[in-house]
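Dissemination and training. As part of the outreach component of the grant, students in the summer workshop were shown how a complex can be specified as a set of sequence lines and then modelled as a single object. The example used during the hands-on session is reproduced here so that future cohorts can follow it. Participants entered these lines:
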Amino acid sequence: MIEVKNVSKNYGPVSAVKDISFTVEKGHIYGFLGPNGAGKSTTMNMITGCLAATSGEITVAGHDIYSEAMEAKRHIGYLPEQPPLYTDMTPFEYLSFVGRAKGLSKGELYDQIESVMEKTGITDVADRLIRNLSKGYKQRVGIAQAILGNPDIIILDEPTVGLDPIQIVEIRQLIQELGQKHTVILSSHILQEISAVCDWVIMISKGKIVASDAIDNLLSGTEGNTSIHLETEGNADTIRKILQKIKGVEKLSFAEKGSRLSVTVSVGQDAHPGDDIFMALRHENLPVHSMTDGVSQNTLEDLFIQLAGESLDAGAAYAAEKAAKKEKKSNKEPTGTSPLGPAYYTDSDKADPSSEDTAEESDTYEPLFEDKEENDK
Amino acid sequence: MSAVFRKEFRSGMCGMTGMIFIAYVLLFLGLNTVYVNYRYGVGSFEIVIVSAAFLSLLAVPLLTMRSFSEERHNKTDQLLYSLPIGTGKIVLGKFFAMAAIFAIPTLVACIYPLIASLYSSGGINLAIGYGAILAYYLLGCAVIAICMFLSTLTESQVIAAIISIGAILLMYFTNIILSVLPSGAWVSLAAVIILALVVAGICFAATKSAVISGICAAVLVVGAVIVYIMNASLFEGLIETIIGSVEIFKPIESFTLGTFDIACLFRYLSICVLFIFFTVQSFEKRRWN
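and obtained this result:
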């Protein structure tokens, strides 16, 4: 349905999206996941034709979004991050305008409006001015305009932001219903939302796609560490010395439970040291009251932190290199390397400046800087 | 386009601004009719129109200030960009809606010459009168197009209104500006150099390239100086021509001489087309920035 090929978007010297490519197939609910300022909204704006890409190609249902914009846009219903509502209109008037603009004939216009108002639960407020509606209802009106005209693809940019928990559940249910008939792309930085609603995830971090796969595939490919929990008695230091000698034991943590000692052993991949642990403790005449082991499956959160973290590490390395070059060039105290200026450095930073520290500082602030760019846009 | 037209016309008429605008235009047309036709007994309606044109059209920014700046401020422009309507149709829809609102007081004013002719002993030349009304309507549309373009430059309605009023005042008071400027070829040369620097500034704003804008400024300035050295007489009266070209309230005055000035009508129509084109470009540019 949608093909994004080598798309980049630069805002002056700032690169918001860097050479991304992905395909959206029919009949899935896609979760577009990424931290704030990762480039989610920029990508969505480019897919919907609201924003032109600096380079690359986007086709929607086989039509190029720029050269065949009208045909491509007929397949898309879009709800931007801030619902684009004319607050001096009633939901009915607003939907009439959007329906006409989407080219609906007079006959189907009112049937469709009635149908989407029912689906989104705004029939009761159809004649009230949008400015007087609550945020939840405004969001529903925004979704109603996106699904009006029965487009094949519905793109929703953070549709549950600012809603109360009940409204969030309702909107998620609505998205799941929509997913039965349409292809839905849902952007969010809320992991629970993505895992609850979507069956496919596209992860973006710092303007790059870091993963794109079905949720199950993503999670099954990333098994968490095996850990063994056991309860024994004795001194933690002694037990540490005994267990550290065993092959496959990576990390140990201890917690006292009355007279007993609870031990959690993190085990390396493909290692099975359970028997050796048991035998070693028995050899030292230490009782083993209970012992359990198992593989913990990573959650989407673990995966996200892992993938986004890798991307951030790459960014940190680049920033470190950049800062080192800058320092070498100027041979001065590097107090102004943060994009947010020297005011964001503490006195201790100034007192003991090292190139690595400076690089870490600039990397820490970089997402904030990108957030600002995104907002400016 | 009809969807945008209907929406804009409806929001203009249902909101306060459209009503205030219509009332304001009618007030000035009415006052001038009373003074010129009844109080002073002048039997021509074109004088009413010409004398009311500037003050009544000073209210145009009230109509245009929200046309694009509000869309940008409320981020509803994203809806317009994502809908399957071309940018040209969006701009035309908005322009025609504002032109339709302006047509309401103009149509009401069409009754005035008929009423005045009932009381005029010598009769009123209705052809010239209605010609003047047509010119006035096209002048209003030209001002609407200019102010609509200015509203695409900012997301603040207030700033859009202020720069629009500034532009109308500038277009009206060009005579005064001309009278205080010293005459002579060197003044025209200075004006051309300033114009060249403005062009270079626009070039820099568009390309962000100091080299291209620098080359642009150098070529224009050096070219102007060379032409001035070779033939200074070419610059005689040039500043009057340049400034005179933005004086859009002047051509309508030809109707008071009893002529039906078609050139004036074409001039206003071409200003409309030109600024609608600029508006489309400016609105489209946002998508690329």
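The radius of gyration of chain B is 22 Å. Students were then asked to discuss how this feature might be tested experimentally.
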